[in-house]
Amino acid sequence: MSASPDATWLQACHAAALVALDPAGTGVVLRARPGPVREAWLDRLRALLPAGTPVMRLPAGIADDALLGGLDLPATLRTGRPVAQAGLLARSDGGVVLVPMAERLAPGTAARIAQGLDAGAVTVARDGIATRCPTRFGLVLLDEGEGEDEGVPAGLADRIALHLDLDAVPVAALGASPPLPDLAAAREIRPETTPDASETLCALAAQLGIASLRAPLLALRVARLHAALEGRAAVGEPDLAAAAALVLAPRARAWPQEEEQDERMGEDAPPADEAGGDDDRHEARQGEEDRLLAAVAASLPPGLLARLLAGDGPRIRSAGAGGAGAVAAALRGRPVGARPGDPRRGRLALIETLRAAAPWQRLRRGDGEARLRITADDLRIRRLVQRRETTTIFAVDASGSAALERLAEAKGAVEQLLAECYVRRDRVALVAFRGRGADLLLVPTRSLVRAKRALAALPGGGGTPLACGIDAAARLAAAERRGGRSPVVLLLTDGRANIDRAGRPGRAQAGADALAAARALAAEGTRALVIDTAARPQDSARALAAAMRARYLALPQADAARLARAVREAAPAA
Description:
Blueprint: H1 5-21, E1 28-31, H2 36-48, E2 55-57, H3 64-68, E3 69-71, H4 73-79, E4 84-86, H5 88-91, E5 96-99, H6 107-119, E6 121-126, E7 129-134, E8 138-143, H7 154-159, E9 162-165, H8 195-207, H9 214-229, H10 237-248, H11 258-268, H12 276-299, H13 304-309, E10 326-340, H14 350-357, H15 361-364, E11 380-388, E12 390-397, H16 404-423, E13 427-434, E14 437-445, H17 448-456, H18 466-482, E15 486-493, H19 507-523, E16 527-532, H20 539-548, E17 551-554, H21 560-570
Parallel strand pairs: 1-8, 1-9, 2-5, 5-8, 12-13, 12-15, 15-16, 16-17
Antiparallel strand pairs: 3-4, 6-7, 10-11, 13-14
Helix pairs in contact: 1-2, 8-9, 8-10, 8-12, 9-10, 10-12, 16-17, 16-21, 18-19, 19-20
């Protein structure tokens, strides 16, 4: 049994009332495309909030001073002393912050918002000012991600109680919207909870494979709000069921099998010689957990319960963690801040220059002098960048000279490197060479799932056509460069070539062809990294790295940290 679209919309309307009761204590991750369904839900939330509640929309690419607060430049210049200005989070105290396209939220911005949620305040100490403003706000993250690798930052999603998915809700379902409830009385109720309620939610979270410790705490908070909404003075089983459906169900990673439930019941059951009261209490709690599981099952999207039973949990969409490619400094491009400099060698950043000069005007001005005094130390110039995507091309030696266990280690290294590229939001491609040629197993993509699937299917055995592998990687790098992207080649091989470019066996010619291909790749200016997959470091792999003008790294000596650092150093500098 799973939730129908109409039931999903009714549940979302109920969730809006819970958020309106306590925005700062709940929050919502709302997965929905822009359209009437999403706007109807947001309008409902606004209507349920108390009159005068601030609802702020977070602009894309917001700067730190606008988010957290900073120097009020006009007031500072007018008074001659630093004057603080509240940021968006401080102005949202007691209200709600809407974050459109939350899946594209910059990691630094996400971290600062999470810090504000945890501390309930924003502290600013720079530009001659030091302030601390309270900021308890509810967060509504609008997730518009399309791919399986796109999603809101995990750190923020973990701090938000309610996760709603309205993608499958049709516009026709809006006609069944319930009337707006009156929340005035519910806001005055403070329902009581029992230790059993906390234990039940924690046990249920464990059964559903939820590792986060925040999840049962948030579920308990939502259960209290649900009880208040229903006018109850104490949290009951219907409130726990609603909290489990709204908070725990979207986070479920597994589903308890019948055998596991039987084993758990046997382990948890009290000894037969103990008082019957404990036995009765255990059975009552077990029955309550089963009923809560039924409530969770009824709220799951269609098809998800079958996937959980099969051990294939819902996809985890983690946040894009920053640098989507090389950032090349240029005289033209997008401004990304300012730095001290000579305006003759860049563009003058007037506002930043005035901000740097403002705190010192009282010391620089003479008596009765009104004009602004600016020194060379105050001058700021704009930092302009042109953003180019990076494509990381994995060229993997799958020949017989790399024994099966070495190929397994190489695959493990590639998985670690793929994770590093995914964090940097690189496109990745996979070229494998064995036998008499090279094959493009994965065209450039950002999908970590597709990359791992192609890697898992990589066969091994045959000769080592090293030159063909390097040539294939070079052709792909040239195509990516023509497309305006910055390629970087990661070559995993033991360096022992035995098949030349024409497909003929022979170590001498094959080695010469491999070195020639490496020099050609270096002549094109392609950055590269050579990872020696042999059991012991090979001189042939070192020579190949030298011809390629690439860094050499021996796999037996490379742990995850060294591999990640090597990828960052090989990629174009940000």
